[in-house]
Amino acid sequence: MGLLNPAAAPGRAVGHQSDGTMKRYARYRSSLAPFGRTVGALSVAIAVLSVLLHRFGLIEAWVMSASLAVAAGFGLTAAVIAFLALRRLWRFGGSGYLDAQLGAVLGLAGAAPVCVVAWVWIFEPPLTDVATDPSDPPVISQNPADLAVEDQAAQFFQDLILERARAVTGQLAGSPDGDAAAVQRALYEDIVPRRYRMPPARLHAAMRRAAEARGWVLTDELPPDLPDAETRAQYLARSPVLGIGADIGIRIRPDPVGALLDVRSVSRSPVPDFTGNADRIRSLLAEIDLVLIETYGDLARLAVLEDELEEMVEGSPSGAEPEEDAAPQIPTPAFKPYFETEDGLPEGEGDLPAPASSG
């Protein structure tokens, strides 16, 4: 065998035989590159299919999580194969660069969701439950069928994988200081109870309109039977991409200034909160403010901030709570939100009609 001819055409090795004739060597073709591309494409297909099936309610959340873990395994395998193929191509030349690059990209894309979840699980605060009053949060009722895990495979996945993941990530990130309530107060100082100068029934109606505007599904409700009675509601919210569910509990109680609103968001996923629960509470409070502004036109006379309440309490005799009749009156709307009868409030009570157009 002769030496390679540097002047030969790319991809063709040419050597001189003993008789002086030219001999062409076979061009190197990577067999790992197409294989890595196929495995990477399989990884992406599994990840996308599992997300779509869960988004349309065809599989449970734990099935999607297990499928994403399998997709991540295929993705990492494809990435390793692709990098090995690129290494051999760099050394020997030949064809297969495009397949190797596609395999690496597809493999990393298939493993990306699990990598992001692992990053969040390790470095984010271990909060899956956020409330405006973490010491006394609203009660969230759940269907016993949702709490019971009947499938043994689901039980195995939760006990073996999730519990071990919590233990490992807890050792890597370290346990947070204080309980969950203290951690939440330190992270989300703006998420506090809200007070409004109006009866709980009117605030409940505004809350219903705000939750419907967010696209949440009502799962449980204690509607107002009297203007000053406590009310509750529970909604199901889903993330826009993965469709991971979260239970939103809302409680409205009578307060010396009118009504006290508390909101709680609990993820149905064991992954620590990645601003999802906190953002849901903030979005609901902001939507309620918009509804009140559209209805009454003056939010400053309706909402009572914590610092304003402290000033009212400090200014009242003997530090007592402010009297209800001492609170500023709310502006009178252009409609009657509810009509009281002997049997309580009729059907459709508390519904805030759409505000009259300015035109």
Automatic annotation (TrEMBL):
Map out region (Disordered) in residue numbers. Answer: 312-359
Q: Report whether ATP-binding shows up as a keyword of the record.
A: no
> What top-level branch of life does the organism fall under?
Bacteria
Q: Where are the transmembrane segments?
A: 32-56, 62-86, 98-122
**Keywords in alphabetical order:** Membrane, Transmembrane, Transmembrane helix
Q: Where is the composition biased (Acidic residues)?
A: 340-350
- Protein name, please? DUF1499 domain-containing protein
